[in-house]
Amino acid sequence: MNRLTRRRFLSTTSTLLGTFPLAKNLALAQPTPASQPASKPDHTLYYTSPATQWVDALPIGNGRLGAMVYGGGPIAEKAASSTSELLQLNEHTFWSGQPRDGNNPDAPNHLAAIREAILQHQDYHLADQLCHKMQGLFAEAYQPLGSLSVKLTHTGISSDYRRTLHLDTATHITTYTVDGAEIQREAFVSAPHHVIILRITSSAPRTLNATIALSGELMHSVTAPSPNRLLLTTKAAAHIAGAGHPGSEKPIILSDELGNGMYGVTALHLQLEGGTSTIAPDGKSLTVTNATAFTLRLTAATGYRGFQRKPDTPATEVAAAATRLLDPVVAIPFFTLRATHIADHQRLYRRAALSLPTTDVTTAALPTDRRLAAFATILDPALLALYFHYGRYLLIASSRPGGQPANLQGIWNAKTQPPWSSNYTANINIQMNYWPAETCNLSECTAPLFDFITDLSKTGTIAAKETYNLPGWCSHHNIDLWRAANPVGQGVGQPTWANWGMSAAWLCQHLYQHFLFTRDLNFLSIRAYPLLRSAAEFCLAWLIEDGVGHLTTCPSFSTENDFLAPDGKKAMASHGCTMDLALIRELFSNTIAASTQLHLTTESDFNAKLEAAAKRLIPYQVGKHGQLQEWSVDFDESTPGQRHMSHMYPLYPGNQITPRTTPELAQAARVSLERRLAAGGAYTGWSRAWAIDFWARLHDGDKAWESLSMLMLHSTNLNLFDTHPANPSPIFQIDGNFGTIAAIAEMLLQSHEGTLDAPHLDLLPALPAAWPNGAIKGLRARGSIEVDLQWSNARLTTATLRPTHSGPIYLRTPNNQKFTSKSLTPKPQPDGTQRLTLEANKTYRLTFA
Asked: Is the entire prediction scored with pTM above 0.90?
């Protein structure tokens, strides 16, 4: 790097060191293509060839807009070649369909017969048949907005190709050399300015020639209002049937006589540095000639007007909305946009960081795809540090306040009919998306989930009344932009997923967990408690007598699993599945605790009913194999390797089963996990992630590392996307990325025991032998405490605690390691913990012998 280039590099990348106030100076800098952030192995994904398919591209996003960047490059060793950079685009509210009541009005008429078949006759097959009669409409699907392509024409032979995703700055950079010129393409999505940016530069003046186009998979049109402006108008499908499940209707309806299906408009502005631009002869693209650099700014708007209103905004109004977003950004210099974007991203991203040993420096320096391939033969724990940082990056990119929550693919989808509709699958997937948010210090990223739950409670109140004739609110397993809360399936869905109706109780766990981590009483009072109480009201009314003195749920399903009925045939519907009981116990307990924290004395009668009902629930049982029973009857599993492990909920993400408080049940849970894995379970990435969480809660770090290794070898794509096995290419499911980083956090810090006013912090509870040295900063514990840890030779060396509230905590150290602190006097407790009294907003450093 020559002196001038180095000076430019230092001036334009100073924000990477946290010097955001220099943004005004950055706006004046004119860096060469070489001026890109230095690669950091734990914070960088890089490749030496372009992506050839969507699932291999790299994601950028801001919670509202998402793009998959292919990093297209010229053909090496070939003169007069061209390259097409491709960005596949998404907008968070661009979905098929419109609001509708998906409940089946005939459903309540079949509930009594189902319960009679199960509880009185043990005719589970009849119950399954009758459950079909309670099913309503399928949910809708997340849609692709379109694509941006930039075709660059070169005359020489290219070399030194590299595409890189810098997690620390949330920027994608592609570089190569051609005709002696360095070409750089930089892309990012700014949350502060709601814009996608793509800047292309050449170190040789006036050598860039390009064609810029917008296109889409759905019905669309493209116009060029001026030589520097393109508009892509796309129309979402009027309806998409249930994720490929069989049904009587056509799978995709692109439009109908009523004009249903919302509009989405992408607005693009071209800004040149040298050269000229013209409207191409086709009238639908722009041509750039002899430029030194050019910057593309893209914004988007849709006809979405809220989950209860028909998205019938005319295309002209949607285009005007997109233009209103774009016009103010045009006047802002690129380097100001970039600096503002980086500062905003790093405000969240830099809160936490994981460092794990690199056993082979050469391996750590490999391109990410080759490094992942080498994982099979080379011990590389540091790759998990990269995976951890990538997971936090993905959550920041796909879930921001004011946006929709992260769906099954975060915010990225290229298909009109995506796998499982790329919707909100609420029998684990949307919940797993948010498992790491609190522990990994991204609490703000939960805001879209809480807005979603608030909306869902409204449609869920209708579902409770129309489907079950019960008070309160409930929701089922498939939810979409329109907050569909009804059981789906349309008479053809398998009841074990279509009729499962406990997602409201599960979603409510996230509300109370947010309070435990933040101690935000205002949130508990205004947002959380009304939703908890209403869901508890439904569950209280949902419980019925089982005939032998207990309360139970009926019909009940262990999500997506089935069992062998007494006749040896598969069945799905029964009563009192373990997960139902766990969710209801937890919901009742959290509702009571919330009202106590809020001093709601008027709720004493309701709390008494919840307490009495909880005591009468069927207890957790140990089955004939020594396993935690999945059903209230000790049925044999028809699919021993089922990817769902719902009966393990009270171990994780719940806290009703722990090795210390319920050792017998914890051992039974371990047996269940071992049996599931021995039968081939956890064959999807998200299921493997759940297994890692279980091992962490069982305090078995080596088993957790074994499953982490399996995840990297069998459920991780070359761009580190979590995968579901499929041919010819894997299917991306983002929940596995999120579930895994939550598990890594659980391996290093746990706080689910104890109470809000006396939280228990367990340091390094599941540290594997493969991680003898390392450090983590910025994890969060319940009670609103931030924690940093360092360890060496498998022993803690330092711990730093930063509480936001005053009060006692109980600290558990690995192997009861002793520690000293200048400002704390530990008090040993009979259970092996150390009692410490902390003051709010102070920093405590513990040094271990």
From this structure: yes
683 DSSP 8-state letter: -
pLDDT (0 to 100) of residue 28:
30
What is the C-alpha radius of gyration for the chain, rounded to an integer number of angstroms?
27
Same domain, 546 and 562: yes
- In this predicted model, what pLDDT tens digit does every residue of 764-814 receive, in sequence order? 999 999 999 999 999 999 999 999 999 999 999 999 999 999 999 999 999
Query: Taking a C-beta distance cutoff of 8 angstroms, is the pair 711, 692 a contact?
Result: yes
For residues 697 and 658, the answer to whether their CB atoms sit within 8 Å is yes
The residue range of the domain holding 318 is: 43-96+145-344
**Which pair of structure tokens corresponds to residue 309?**
């209103």
CB 110 within 8 A of CB 130: yes
Give the SS3 label for residue 452: helix
The DSSP 8-state label assigned to residue 21 in this structure reads G
User: Residue 254 has what pLDDT?
Assistant: 58
268-297 residues labelled b (16+ CB within 10 A) or e (exposed): bbbebbbbebebeeeebbbbbeebbbbbbb
CA separation (Å) from 543 to 538, 614, 618, 725?
9, 10, 11, 38
* H-helix or E-strand spanning residue 591: helix 578-597
Contact 493, 129 (CB under 8 A): no
Place of tokens 């936490």: 352
Q: In one letter, which amino acid is 794? A: A
Q: Give dist(CA 345, CA 359) in Å, integer.
A: 30
Q: Rounded to an integer, what distance in angstroms lies between the CA atom of residue 525 and that of residue 514?
A: 12
| Mean pLDDT value across residues 486-500 | 95
Does 753 reside within a domain? no
Do 134 and 153 lie in a common domain?
no
Q: Which helix (H) or strand (E) covers residue 786, if one does?
A: strand 785-792
Tokens of 375: 């994982």
pLDDT at 22 over 90: no
Closest listed residue to residue 152, CA positions, set 50, 83, 78: 83
Q: Please state the separation of Cα 841 from the chain's center in Å.
A: 30
Asked if residues 659 and 666 have their Cβ atoms less than 8 Å apart, the reply is yes
The half-sphere exposure of 650 on its side-chain side, counting CA atoms within 13 A, is 31
Beta bridge partners of 716: 722
Cβ contacts of 353 within 8 Å, gap of 6 or more: 42, 389, 776, 777, 778
CATH of the domain at 328: 2.70.98.50
Number of domains in the chain: 4
Beta strands at 834-838 and 785-792: parallel, antiparallel or unpaired:
unpaired
Q: Which ranges constitute the DSSP H helices of 399-502?
A: 429-433, 435-439, 447-468, 495-498
Same domain, 132 and 230: no
Question: Does 217 share its domain with 126?
Answer: no
Residue 249 lies in a domain: yes
d(CA 673, CA 651): 11
Domain end marker among 663, 681, 699: 681
CA 596 to chain CA mean position, Å: 32
Handedness of CA 130, 466, 578, 619 (dihedral sign): negative
Find the DSSP H helices in 732-813. Answer: 735-748
- Tokens 């439904």 sit on residue: 538
Helical (H) or strand (E) element with 530:
helix 529-542
For residues 402 and 54, the answer to whether their CB atoms sit within 8 Å is no
Cis peptide bond upstream of 555, omega within 30: yes
pLDDT tens-place string over residues 237-288: 999 876 555 443 445 565 554 568 999 999 999 999 999 999 999 999 999 9
Q: What does the pLDDT look like over 592-632, one tens digit per residue?
A: 999 999 999 999 999 999 999 999 999 999 999 999 999 99
Prior bond to 108 cis, omega within 30? no
Task: Say which DSSP state 427 is in.
Answer: T
Contact (Cβ atoms closer than 8 angstroms) between residue 751 and residue 762: yes
Amino acid at 631: W
Q: What CATH number is given to the structural domain containing 795?
A: 2.60.40.1180
